[in-house]
């Protein structure tokens, strides 16, 4: 046992708070066990460049879907598409989405089918009843404000969108939607209403509202189901979709096409590379000072 | 040796003080009282509480400045950076303050006052009372502000060794500048019951704010299980909060109305009478830098069962506390162990042991050592101090330097328009209890 000058035994420093000042050790003594229990980067996922690029396909796919919607809007506003073809488009999309949901559902159940069908019919009839209201909503507002507002709302929508899943979950999914995904959904709905209010007749309004809301509300759900079903189908479908979108926007407007192309290259190539580069700065600290995590679910 | 002790003139600053009740508030109060007894001059500065604005005197002529700033969020004043400079400068000159001691990282008034004190050349000490995380946005901003305040500090005090590790990691200061001076408990106020309670039924007491952070959800899982396993156990729950509804629901669901008693909010003066009606004290917090409630319970002679989080393992020796992981199964196991230990517990012996382990006079003595070290550090001019801020970060360092330079310029302007000679200095008043503590 160590002793000091007076021959008194020196006690070892203990990590305790009681008993006053420890003899032989000042209060700012930093022991060799200081920060011994610190754990760094325990939960950090090692990321792979190819996987990051493949995962970024979901984002490019959604950006191209939104661009397609904008193209349809522009064609409708320029009277290149009339209301009857729009209605036919709506019905085709509805049928397509429905069939994809049924094919990818893990177990086919008649109850699910009836539930979806009822929801869709309520939704469609509600829209039809409200179409006259949307028709005259923005009559007193100038067109420039409408275009500017629509563009800002769509940017907010793309920025805050929940790309990892869908705000409207298939029944049985657990995660609650976050605040930002709700805000993005509302932004897209308001943008659709603004565009719809610029159209000449009520049937136009109904058709375009049905089309926009179908895409904004149900496209994420359909894509989520496809991704869950098979990744390769998802990948192939995304490539086709991006190609089709680029072709359509090329014929529509050159600047829009250019912006879209740059955006897709940025999302698919530059961002994953950047993410991998800055991962090396990650410094996650855990230790006894962390707030304890409850191991059970608090269901209210 | 006692006469050669230097007498300091200390300003305690925090947003949290009487009439608010809490850990930080009682720490400032008790520490100030004990420092007054040791012959130092202590003045406290805090924001206005309701109609309480201006200078008040509390016990033993302890002067409190309730400056005319209203709290805007969770008892914190609105951070205005420079608007508190005039009032802080006036107080520092009037009271001839040599050391400014700030409390609690969450208090905006504390950070601002420490910044002004540094600009004016006073010595600065900071005490951190809580643990913070690193990952969520609130913590990241808070840690950056703490890094700014602690970049140019003389010394810091933490209330436990775990808290010291946490503070050093958050702010990046050298560990040698951080002293560990724990909190204490007023053992004269928390005495055990004169007659020991009967042992045929075991009473478990819980007194805490019923919020997520204090583990109210763990209580909801643990209490029914314990009541099922041990038929002779009764619970007394004191305290109020958002999670009280969940506890009431649990009572209804498992029909525990006669075995779980909910007292609602317990005023601080009645905490002792609630504690002495029980055998075991249960603390289920998810995070604690230092838990004074455990000290109060141990001083009243209760055996403690607590979650092993933060600084709790350092607070009591192993025979006075049973620790458990913050999971319901382990807590039930710990309660069983505590019930088995109960026959060997004598409240009076526990109380006398607590008197030797913790005392506010000891805390004041150790804080005085920190003040002496702070006064011995050299005075540096503003140009010598600025490099300490530059290392805080690529962008943040330059921003912090800019903030300090503007503060310095504003201080110089104030010196010109309102010279220090025109501010009356307060004469020293003799303290009523002028003897020195013999411990």
Description:
- The complex is a heterodimer of chains A (300) and B (439).
- Chain A is an all-alpha fold and 300 residues long.
- The mean pLDDT of chain A is 86.
- Chain A is 62% helix and 1% strand.
- Chain A starts with 38 loop residues before the first strand and ends in a 14-residue tail after the last strand.
- Chain A is elongated.
- Chain B has 439 residues and is of the alpha/beta class.
- Chain B has 14 helices and 16 strands.
- In chain B, the strands form 3 sheets. Chain B has an 8-stranded mixed beta sheet, with helices on both faces. A 6-stranded parallel beta sheet of chain B has the order 13-12-11-14-15-16, sandwiched between helices.
- In chain B, α6 (216-229) packs parallel to α7.
- The mean pLDDT of chain B is 90.
- The chains are: A mainly alpha (300), B alpha/beta (439).
- The A-B interface holds A 15-21, 26-28, 30, 34-35, 37-38, 284-285, 287-292, 294-296, 298 and B 131, 133-135, 155, 159-163, 165-166, 168-169, 175-182, 213, 215, 217-218, 221, 286-287, 289-290, 307, 309-311, 314-317, 326-328, 356-359, 362, 366, 369-370.
Task: Tell me the Rg of chain B in angstroms.
Answer: 23 Å
Give the overall silhouette of chain B. elongated
- Strand arrangement within the widest β-sheet of chain B reads 3-4-2-1-7-8-9-10
Q: What's the helix-strand series of chain A?
A: EHHHHHHHHHE
Oligomer: heterodimer
Strand residue content of chain A: under 5%
- Main sheet summary of chain B: 8 strands, mixed
Model regions low in confidence, pLDDT < 50 over at least 5 residues of chain A? none
- Which regions of chain B are unreliable across 5 or more consecutive residues at pLDDT < 50? none
- Give the N-to-C terminal Cα separation of chain A: 58 Å
How would you write the strand order of the largest sheet of chain A? Answer: 1-2
Enumerate how many helices of chain A there are, as a single number. 9
- Give a count of the beta strands of chain A, DSSP E runs of length 2 or more: 2
β content of chain B, as a range? Answer: 15-25%
State the separation between the terminal residues of chain B, measured CA to CA: 14 Å
């Amino acid at each position: 046992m160590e002793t000091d000058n007076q021959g008194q035994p020196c006690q070892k420093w203990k990590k305790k708070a009681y008993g006053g000042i420890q003899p032989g050790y000042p209060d700012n003594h930093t022991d060799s066990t200081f920060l011994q229990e610190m754990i760094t980067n325990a939960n950090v996922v090692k990321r792979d460049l190819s996987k990051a690029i493949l995962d970024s396909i979901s984002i490019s796919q959604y950006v191209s879907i939104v661009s397609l919607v904008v193209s349809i809007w522009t064609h409708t506003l320029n009277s290149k598409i009339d209301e009857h073809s729009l209605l036919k488009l709506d019905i085709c999309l509805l049928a397509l989405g429905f069939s994809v949901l049924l094919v990818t559902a893990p177990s086919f159940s008649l109850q699910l089918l009836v539930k979806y069908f009822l929801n869709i019919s309520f939704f469609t009839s509600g829209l039809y009843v409200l179409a006259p209201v949307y028709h005259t909503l923005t009559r007193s507002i100038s067109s420039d404000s409408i275009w500017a507002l629509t563009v800002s709302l769509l940017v907010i929508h793309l920025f805050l969108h929940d790309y990892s899943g869908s705000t409207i979950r298939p029944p049985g999914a657990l995660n609650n939607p976050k605040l930002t995904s709700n805000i993005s959904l509302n932004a897209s709905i308001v943008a659709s209403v603004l565009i719809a209010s610029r159209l000449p007749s009520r049937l136009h309004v109904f058709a375009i509202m049905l089309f926009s809301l179908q895409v904004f509300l149900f496209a994420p759900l359909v894509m989520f189901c496809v991704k869950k079903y098979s990744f390769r189908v998802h990948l192939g479908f995304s490539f086709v979709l991006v190609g089709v979108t680029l072709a359509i926007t090329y014929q529509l407007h050159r600047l829009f096409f250019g912006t879209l192309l740059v955006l897709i290259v940025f999302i698919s190539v530059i961002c994953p590379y950047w993410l991998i580069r800055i991962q090396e700065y990650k410094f996650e600290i855990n230790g006894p000072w962390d707030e304890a995590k409850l191991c059970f679910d608090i269901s209210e | 040796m006692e006469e050669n002790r230097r007498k300091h003139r200390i300003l305690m600053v925090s947003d949290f003080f009487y009439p608010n009740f809490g850990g930080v508030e009682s720490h400032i109060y008790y520490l100030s009282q004990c420092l007054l007894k040791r012959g130092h001059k202590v003045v406290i500065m805090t924001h206005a509480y309701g109609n309480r604005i201006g200078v008040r005197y509390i016990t033993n002529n302890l002067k409190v400045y309730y400056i005319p700033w209203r709290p805007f969020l969770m008892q914190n004043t609105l951070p205005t950076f420079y608007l508190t400079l005039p009032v802080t400068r006036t107080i520092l000159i009037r009271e001839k303050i040599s050391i400014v001691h700030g409390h609690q990282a969450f208090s905006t008034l504390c950070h601002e006052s420490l910044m002004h004190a540094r600009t004016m050349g006073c010595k600065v000490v900071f005490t951190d009372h809580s643990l913070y995380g690193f990952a969520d946005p609130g913590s990241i901003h808070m840690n950056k502000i703490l890094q700014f305040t602690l970049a140019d500090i003389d010394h810091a005090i933490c209330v436990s060794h775990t808290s010291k590790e946490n503070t050093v990691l958050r702010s990046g200061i050298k560990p040698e500048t951080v002293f560990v001076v724990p909190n204490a408990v007023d053992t004269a106020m928390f005495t055990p019951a004169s007659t020991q309670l009967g042992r045929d039924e075991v009473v478990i007491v819980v007194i805490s704010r019923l919020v997520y952070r204090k583990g109210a959800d763990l209580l909801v899982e643990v209490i029914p299980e314990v009541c099922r396993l041990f038929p002779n156990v009764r619970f007394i729950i004191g305290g109020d909060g958002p999670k009280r509804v969940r506890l009431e629901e649990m009572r209804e669901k498992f029909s525990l109305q006669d075995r779980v008693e909910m007292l609602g909010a317990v005023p601080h003066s009645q905490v002792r009478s609630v504690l002495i009606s029980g055998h075991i004290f249960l603390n289920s917090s998810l995070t604690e830098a230092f838990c004074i409630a455990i000290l109060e319970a141990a001083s009243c002679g209760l055996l403690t069962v607590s979650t092993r989080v933060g600084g709790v393992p350092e607070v009591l020796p192993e025979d006075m506390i049973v620790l458990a992981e913050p999971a319901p199964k382990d807590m039930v196991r710990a309660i069983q162990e505590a019930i088995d230990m109960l026959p060997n517990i004598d409240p009076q012996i526990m109380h006398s042991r607590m008197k030797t382990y913790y005392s506010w006079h000891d805390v004041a003595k150790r804080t005085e050592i920190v003040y002496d070290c702070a006064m011995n550090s050299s005075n540096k001019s503003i140009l010598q101090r600025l490099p300490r801020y530059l290392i805080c970060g690529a962008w943040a360092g330059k921003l912090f330097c800019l903030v300090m330079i503007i503060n310095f310029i504003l201080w110089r302007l104030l010196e010109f328009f309102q010279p220090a000679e025109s501010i009356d200095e307060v004469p020293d008043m003799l303290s009523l209890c002028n003897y020195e503590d013999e411990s």
